[in-house]
Design brief:
Order of helices and strands: HH
Helix content: over 70%
Shape: rod-shaped
Distance between the termini: 111 Å
Largest sheet: none
Structural class: mainly alpha
Oligomer: single chain
Strand content: under 5%
């Protein structure tokens, strides 16, 4: 009778610990899914930054910046300025 009681109590303890471990495992799985999503987002961001880095090194980008920020034009371009008619 005593041995049965000890085995039964051990079974209850193992069951309780097992259920708590299962809940902890579920939390870790959710964390892992979230971290994988963040990782994918960061990988996509890294790929976008790499494309931007390549674009910044092109002549087209240099022309865009020269036109927008410095107001420079190509030698064959004609600028039309609005008249100041008051």
């Amino acid at each position: 009778m005593g041995i049965t009681l000890v085995v039964l109590s051990l079974a209850v303890v193992v069951h309780i610990k097992g259920s708590s471990l299962k809940s902890i495992n579920r939390e870790y799985e959710i964390r892992l899914e979230n971290l994988n999503a963040v990782k994918e987002d960061e990988e996509q961001r890294a790929a976008d930054l790499e494309e931007e880095r390549k674009h910044v090194q092109t002549k087209e980008y240099i022309k865009e910046v020269a036109k927008e920020k410095l107001g420079l034009v190509d030698p064959d371009e004609i600028l039309l300025k609005p008249s100041n008619a008051d």
